[in-house]
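## retry 2 of 3
previous attempt timed out at serialization; input unchanged, resubmitting
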Amino acid sequence: MSNTANNLVDIINDLDAGVFAQKMERAMFDVAQGVIDTSKSGKVTISFEFKRIASSNQVAVKHKLEFLKPTKNGKSREENTTETPMHVGVRGKLSLFPESQPELFDRQGHGSPSASDAAH
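## retry succeeded, writing output
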């Protein structure tokens, strides 16, 4: 795998500003506890849908989390869908920011020369 490849953990943590990862964690904990409490099976399903944003190098990533938690008298089902815009870089690398975005400020907080050059 090349150095331009994404780390899946980083991508998941970028979705919905980290909230999606927290929802995944909570769903897995709740389903696992339901399985232990009832000895019935549970299920967590995660799906992603990608759509291009206009003619840009961005995609809208729709992320859906569904889970089925077994309960004493049946089951509890929940579904949550949110969407995050992501930039697509070299070889499909996904990130919140474009790979070529210039620094806007230098270490002292002044406008960076590279940022003002890019604006012109």
